[in-house]
Amino acid sequence: MPYFVVHEHHARQLHFDLRLERDGVLKSWAIPKGPSMNPQDKRLAIMVEDHPLDYGDFEGIIPEGHYGAGKVYIWDTGEYNTVKGSIEEGQWEVDIKGEILKGRFVLLRLKSGENNWLFIKKKDTFADYNFKLTYRAKK
User: Does the reported pTM lie above 0.70?
Assistant: First the structure.
């Protein structure tokens, strides 16, 4: 089963990076407000460049002067499987089995050919309407 990781990235602007293993790379989205277990939250997810698989277990500091400079922590990790759709179709529904993120999520492209997506928790037994985003490190 393919794996996923969410990095808490304290760069110029704090954000979270969702990375899903697919086709030998980590497909990646920056989520400025972080993922949510609340189906009412529609999180902007900006598709960024693919990352190599070995980046999935990276935690540390990206030095000043390098792209993405700042501290990086693994916020959540686990496995996922595709339920339906795909990146190419612009709607990719996945089941996630992580420490924090659990259940069904959908990535939905806002406009064809663009990098802006939504990351949305589906209504299921894992949905948490009182979800509060916690940080691995202080802001």
Answer: yes
The verdict on residue 138 lying in a domain is: no
Q: How many domains does the chain have?
A: 1
| 102: region left, alpha or beta (phi > 0 left; psi from -120 to 50 alpha) | beta
Which ranges of 12-136 would DSSP assign to H, the alpha helix? none
Give the contacts of 113 (CB within 8 A, at least 6 positions apart).
none
**39-88 pLDDT, tens per residue?**
999 999 999 999 999 999 999 999 998 888 899 999 999 999 999 999 99
Assign residue 65 a region (left: φ > 0; alpha: ψ between -120 and 50; beta: otherwise).
left
| Cα 34 from Cα 132, distance rounded (Å) | 10
Three-state SS for 131?
coil
Bridge partners of 29, per DSSP, are 18, 47
Buried residues in 45-62 as b, exposed as e (16+ CB within 10 A): bebeeebeeebbeeeeeb
